[in-house]
Write a structure and sequence with these properties.
The complex is a heterodimer of chains A (130) and B (368). Chain A has 130 residues and is α+β, with helices and mostly antiparallel strands. In chain A, 20% of the residues lie in helices and 35% in strands. Chain B starts with 7 loop residues before the first helix and ends with a strand. Classes of the chains: A alpha+beta (130), B alpha+beta (368). At the A-B interface, β4 of A face α2 of B.
Chain lengths: 130, 368
């Protein structure tokens, strides 16, 4: 079974969310997602400063196998992107919850955090998809 | 649950991710497809290809039968063990399958016979087609060899490490093999062939010896590789994949397989010849080319290719090329296509270069 850290939040599109404080969250894709994708070869990220609504397309992950959209799980402004991924997309595979993070959002509505899955809920979702 | 090769337990033991492949449970990778790809380009890797179908063709009419069945001409095989790549065509000149045929005996001797390796996904239709077309030949026997395992060992160190693993007499045989030749040694058939663009071997051996040999290769440093890496390696090498780059509706002339058609001698009748001659007469409308995209993104099968002022085509195989660090593809495009085209990727037109479909050989980029 894949690694699903208990301190993170999740959405059904296989992204994780870490609450950093000051209304800022870090987003990446889960271990389960990187395993499904296989070797990641390109990551296209949004521009810093972009305003996205929850569910908007925020980028693309291209693996040897397929291209997958990345969605903004929450509404807000992109305040940072992980520029390391441009040269080292394989970080998404090797460290999906650490160096393989995608972008940070300054939330426009922290209430949206209440709609996210916890680790237990996400584990259940992965099992039901298996 | 699909069919399992004799190496299935080894794959599980070595951490393979198993997927369905034409009804077989096969390893797609053992952790990282890209790492396995590099392993083959820089050192050596091994693939379980036991799912492929092996058919022996014997009888006094074996040669004449194959000269009728195949678009290439087995008369070109003038040395024991030599191999030939050929299409097996239907009456319309479409490709039923592509295959390798080996001459298993000295040429021209009595008892001359051949071994054919065809794709696994096409096994049933191939066997039916081959059996149906023995009609009219008095003495041809087709014998499938389902109890053979097949292991491909590929890469610049593949031959050296294989020799260290197979024992002295088989190592001697390997030293004698020329490229595209296979010979038998103590019940194993060892061929210097492959599907990666690297030097290497394909070894057919009894199923009950396969797991032990696989383990011995691994102990000597040959890394297990899955069918994922096999696909990116063959794409970089510009080798066609049946079912993607050509099929029964596609002429070999539109699949970069013109070189596999033996037009001479003119009086050799083979299945599909009339249709191909008519196509040549009227002009072949499409061709299979290579595409290179050095910008970010990945070319993938079925993306649309747009050639301004000429028309449209389609990508038949595409991937990120781990060796080159950007994407390459094969595409079927109008015959008049020049050196430039656009590919529609996720709604955007992206320019690509058009060239001969061959990207990497022996670890090196082969285009400018």
């Amino acid at each position: 079974m894949s690694n699903i850290p208990s301190e993170l939040k999740y959405v059904a599109s296989h992204e994780w969310i870490r609450v950093e404080g000051d209304g800022i969250v870090t987003i990446g894709v889960t271990d389960h997602a990187q395993d499904l994708l296989g070797d990641v070869v390109f990551v296209e990220l949004p521009e810093v400063g972009a305003e996205l609504a929850g569910g908007d397309e925020a980028g693309v992950v291209e693996s040897v196998k397929a291209a997958s959209d990345v969605y903004a799980p929450l509404s807000g402004e992109i305040v940072a992107i992980n520029e390391e991924l441009e040269d080292s997309p394989e970080l998404v595979n090797s460290d999906p919850y650490g160096d393989g993070w995608f972008f940070k959002i300054k939330l426009s509505d922290t209430e949206e955090l209440n709609d996210l899955l916890d680790a237990e809920g996400y584990t259940g979702l992965c099992e039901s998809e298996a | 649950m699909g069919s399992k090769t004799a190496l299935y337990a080894k794959h599980q033991e070595m951490g393979a991710k198993i997927v369905d492949f034409g009804g077989w449970d096969m390893p797609i990778h053992y952790g990282s497809q890209v790492d396995e790809h590099h392993q083959v380009r820089t050192a050596s890797g091994m693939f379980d290809v036991s799912h492929m179908t092996v058919v022996d063709v014997t009888g006094t009419d074996a040669k004449e039968y194959l000269r009728y069945l195949l678009a290439n001409d087995v008369v070109k095989l003038q040395e024991k063990g030599k191999a030939l790549y050929s299409g097996m065509l239907n009456d319309n000149g479409g490709v039923i399958d592509d295959l390798i045929v080996y001459l298993m005996t000295e040429p021209g001797v009595s008892g001359e016979w051949f071994r054919i390796v065809v794709n696994c996904a096409t096994r049933e239709k191939d066997l039916r087609w081959m059996a149906d077309h023995t009609v009219g030949f008095d003495d041809v026997a087709l014998t499938e060899q389902p109890d053979l395992a097949m292991i491909a060992i590929q890469g610049p160190k593949a031959i050296e490490l294989s020799k260290q693993t197979v024992g002295e007499s088989r190592a001697k045989l390997i030293d004698q093999l020329s490229v595209f030749q296979g010979l038998e040694s103590e019940g194993w058939f060892i061929a210097r062939t492959g599907y990666t663009g690297e030097d290497g071997l394909e070894i057919m051996l009894p199923e009950d010896e396969a797991a032990k040999f696989w383990q011995a290769l691994s102990d000597n440093g040959v890394k297990p590789c899955g069918l994922g890496a096999r696909d990116t390696l063959r794409l970089e090498a510009g080798m066609n994949l049946y079912g993607s780059d050509m099929d029964e509706t596609i002429s070999p002339l539109a699949a970069n397989m013109g070189w596999t058609i033996a037009w001479e001698p003119e009086n050799r009748k083979f299945i599909g010849r009339e249709a191909l001659e008519a196509q040549k007469e009227s002009g072949v409308t499409d061709k299979l080319v290579g595409l290179v995209m050095e910008s970010r993104g990945v070319l993938r099968a079925h993306q649309k290719v747009i050639v301004d002022g000429v028309g449209e085509g389609e990508i038949t195989s595409g991937s990120f090329s781990p060796t080159l660090g950007f994407s390459v593809a094969m595409a079927r495009v109008p015959a008049a296509t020049g050196e430039q085209a656009d590919v529609e990727i996720r709604g955007k037109r992206v320019p690509v270069r058009v060239l001969r479909p061959s990207f990497v050989r022996n670890g090196k980029k082969v285009f400018d």
